[in-house]
Amino acid sequence: VEVKIEVVIPEKERSKEEMSPNGKASPLIYKVNGTARHYHLEEHPITSNPYHNPKDVVEASVCHVKDLENGQMREVDLGCGKALLIKESGEFHAVGHKCPHYGAPLVKGVLSKGRVRCPWHGACFNISTGDIEDFPGLDSLPRFQVKIEKEKVYIRASKQALQTQRRTKMMAKCISLSNYNLSSTNVLIIGAGAAGLVCAETLRQEGFSDRIVMCTMDRHLPYDRPKLSKSMDSHPEQIALRPKEFFCTYDIEVLTEMQVAAVDVKSKIAVFKDGFKMEYNKLLIATGNMPKTLSCKGKEMENVFNIRTPEDANHVVKLATSKNVVIVGASFLGMEVAAYLAERAHSVSLVELEHVPFKKFFGERVGRAVMKMFENNRVKFYMQTEVSELREQEGKLKEVVLKSGKVLRADVCVVGVGAVPATGFLKQSGINIDSKGFIVVNKMMQTNIPGVFAAGDAVTFPLALRNNKKVNVPHWQMAHMHGRIAALNMLAHGTEISTVPYLWTAMFGKSLRYAGHGEGFDDVVIQGDLDELKFVAFYTKSDEVVAVASINYDPIVSKVAEVLAAGRTIRKRDVDTVFFLSFRTGDMSWLTGKGS
Questions:
Q1: DSSP code of 242?
Q2: Which of 83, 321, 528, 552 has the highest Cβ tally under 10 A?
């Protein structure tokens, strides 16, 4: 169905010089399905022609109609850029060929039931529209026109879209910020991480045109937090999720270095640490976690760090170069920092209470394989011990003393011993907090207080994958989805979360990917070679596979994620036989089945 909308603006109205707070023309208001939406015509021209500049368009024959079977994908070259051509259910589709998140080749991903899943980090895109349906990442794929003539497949595409390989969804803007009281907002988002940003963007994408305010203790606009430990010398502007202009364009206000001290849910008022108060209609709490600190003598000493900001990461790299580094805690952060500093520091020592890193998460065998990789890269482990004292010389760190009696030379100490939810300010609010400090939400990310939602690392929520068990999943991908679900339900969509957890870590050029929720697993079935770091680990509980991890076996984790997302049960007995063989052959036909 092609819909053409003609907009006629009276001459008298055109002459008015009404400007929005960001200096652009006031938004045009029109209705879609009875819902008022507000867009700037200059930024989103309403037209039936998706290609505004004929010189920006390229059209090319890319293959014969019989070259692709159903369920196949092919990367095709249009001369000035590439596209991903897909055939499913007898129809051809063409979208961008790179994942907008980190640029993964989607042709190596997983195609299933109308969407393609990224092989690296699990983001999912609708093959008909290009829209992002699961995360991480913020942008969608560009969609290109496909036509069939004389049994040849042609793609017509914008040259610019072929070059950028990403598309930002159409978004609304605020009607007029000048009409608002500075101390009131329709939506207040506490926290400016992935959950908070995706919530704000989703509201705008859904046509929400009222005021949105985000507040953060950080001094920066939202940034790619996982890179703080994976790429420690990145500057804030290099890892920004959106440029400053984006927030101005779409009227998303961000208050930096602003900490909320209390929330009065009855009066719908957030009280900031400096005494400022802001009224809200809807509230999202996405404050994340706060890193745990050491409890030993000397913990406040100079050159002892928790990696929380880009400045922390940059400072550690600068101080650690050609120096002695001690890392306390074989957590994801601790291990990633150790890997990053191994080639830069004179020595890297890692102290851990367990006898194998990642044992609770990946199991002992995988943990030992990872530990061996670190040892081969000059990282020294001190296991089953803790720090008893940090010693200084002239006010700076000199030595780390372990309870085992060992004394380690140290110029820098990085602490990665876990985190606690940043929810202390909610203790007297009436919002339901569990015994560990996590905010309890339902499948729609709603708290027990009407109009108050929570998302990200600070919440426990019902995980469909594990029979709606309340879990905490403190990972980047899940925070994105939490933010989207919260936004949709602020708008009364009634959308429930059903995503499969997906995470990754990168160390010494090796990417370890993981999908599912393996908490409480009782066995690990290994396929491949752990010593060669080319393996797949299936985590089982009773007879059911609940999670999978791999190194150098892409896109197997994304394939398992698709199976789990489809609601199918993978039995332990299937891992060694038909199930694993289907990965080796690339046969995805079992994805279309039902049940187990």
A1: S
A2: 83
Token reading at 252: 């998303």
Q: Which of 42-51, 89-98, 454-463, 475-484 has the lowest mean pLDDT?
A: 42-51
Kindly provide the b/e burial profile for residues 152-189, where b requires at least 16 CB atoms within 10 angstroms of the residue's own CB: ebbbbbbbebbebbbbbbebbbbbbeeebeeebbbbbb
Q: How many Cβ atoms from other residues are within 10 Å of residue 7's Cβ?
A: 9
Dihedral, 239, 243, 246, 252 alpha carbons, nearest 10: 70
Please give the torsion angle defined by the CA atoms of residues 40, 41, 42 and 47, in that order, rounded to the nearest 10 degrees.
140
The pair of structure tokens assigned to 51 is: 């290609």
Amino acid 261 reads A
Check the CA dihedral 449-452-453-456 and report its sign: negative
Cis amide leading into 136 (omega within 30): yes
Which residue carries 């509201």 as its tokens? 203
Alpha helices in 206-356 (DSSP H): 227-230, 244-249, 310-320, 332-341
Domains plus CATH for the chain? 54-164 (2.102.10.10), 170-292+420-499 (3.50.50.60), 304-417 (3.50.50.60), 509-592 (3.30.390.30)
Q: 442, 462 in Cβ contact below 8 A?
A: yes
Quote the DSSP letter at residue 319: H
Closest CA to 546 of 582, 522, 528, 530: 522
Nearest alpha carbon to residue 303 among 394, 365, 234, 384? 394
Taking only the tens place, the pLDDT of each residue in 120-144 is: 999 999 999 999 999 999 999 999 9
Stated length of the chain = 596
Judge contact between 403 and 296, C-beta under 8 A.
no
What are the E-state strand segments in 205-303? Answer: 212-215, 252-255, 260-264, 269-272, 277-285, 289-291
Which residue type occupies 479?
A
Asked if 357 contacts 371 with a C-beta cutoff of 8 angstroms, the reply is yes
DSSP assignment string, 102-131: T--BGGGSEEETTEEE-TTT--EEETTT--
* pTM over the 0.90 mark: no
Which structure tokens are listed for 587?
A: 């046969």
